[in-house]
Specification:
- The longest helix has 13 residues.
- It contains four helices and no strands.
- It starts with 20 loop residues before the first helix and ends in a 14-residue tail after the last helix.
- The protein has 83 residues and is mainly alpha-helical.
- The model has no long low-confidence stretch (mean pLDDT 90).
């Protein structure tokens, strides 16, 4: 994982990509397995997904803050997209 202020405001990303650890964790929290995440993000390897989840395990507070910061307020979501 790397951090670069020029990429996603310094959020941790998988080295050599613009894919954030946050994106991996959000998919995982939605119930996707690491294998399914790779299907949806074919530019990643299974090893990279596991490394991102491992990073999350060691840096949960940091990634949870990134997730919270990137949440769209409910009143800003179009009604057709709400469950």
């Amino acid at each position: 994982m790397v951090k670069d202020d020029a990429l996603l405001g310094g959020e941790p990303v998988i080295k050599g990509t613009r894919t954030s650890v946050r994106a991996i964790v959000e998919n995982w929290r939605l119930g996707l397995s690491p294998e399914e995440i790779v299907i949806h993000m074919p530019h990643l390897t299974l090893s990279q997904v596991f490394e991102a989840l491992s990073y999350y395990s060691d840096h949960q507070e940091e990634i949870n803050e990134c997730i919270e910061k990137n949440q769209i307020p409910a009143d800003k979501i179009h009604p057709s997209l709400k469950k």
